[in-house]
Amino acid sequence: MGIDEADIDPERFLDDVEMRIGTIRSADPFPEARKDVYKLAVDFGSETRQSVAGLTDNYDPEELEGRQVLAVVNLGTVNIAGFESQCLVTGVDDAEGDVVHLQPEREVPDGTRLY
Questions:
Q1: Contact 91/100 with Cβ under 8 angstroms?
Q2: Measured distance between the N- and C-terminal CA atoms of the chain, rounded to whole angstroms
Q3: What is the per-residue pLDDT across 60-96, written as a single tens digit (0 to 9) for each?
Q4: pTM
Q5: How far apart are CA 88 and CA 52, in angstroms?
Q6: What contacts 68, CB < 8 A, 6 or more positions away?
Q7: CB–CB of 91/52 below 8 Å?
Q8: Structural contact between residues 109 and 17, judged by C-beta atoms closer than 8 angstroms
Q9: Which domains does the chain have, with CATH numbers?
Q10: Residue 39: helix, strand or coil by DSSP?
Q11: Considering all CA atoms of the chain, what is the largest pairwise distance in Å, rounded to the nearest integer?
Q12: Between residues 27 and 34, the one the model is more confident about
């Protein structure tokens, strides 16, 4: 694995992509989706948005509730099996290929913006 993408202007990235910390308030199975995912309600302080996230291999719903996550909040909405996903919760693959969500190392106020 290498880092292959061309450099971008960091100020432009932060102007275009809005990423904020939110707390997962609920995580529910989503059997209607083609992939094994959860429906999430993520609290960003001033509002709560819903999302679909493929965290099912590493997390039970009860483990996710109350955890903070880093999410992209300005991608618009995507309709997945009749459910409107309003933000993208970020994650990375672990050594086994399971998704691990990204979170701050300690609690910060919901709605805090990445900079």
A1: yes
A2: 26
A3: 899 999 999 999 999 999 998 889 999 999 999 989 8
A4: 0.88
A5: 8
A6: 21, 22, 23, 24, 103, 104, 107, 108, 110
A7: no
A8: no
A9: 11-101 (2.40.50.140)
A10: strand
A11: 40
A12: 27
Residue that is written with structure tokens 């819903």 in the block? 50
Residues 6+ away with beta carbon under 8 Å from 25: 41, 42, 43, 48, 65
Q: Which two tokens stand for residue 103?
A: 């979170």
The sign of the CA dihedral 73, 77, 78, 83 is positive
Tokens at 90, concatenated: 């970020």
Other beta carbons less than 10 A from residue 22's beta carbon: 26
- Count Cβ atoms within 10 A of the Cβ of residue 12 and give its class: 0-12 exposed, 13-18 middle, 19 or more buried: exposed
Tens digit of each residue's pLDDT (9 = 90 or more) over 30-69 = 888 878 889 999 999 999 999 998 776 788 899 999 999 9
Two tokens at 113?
Answer: 């913006």
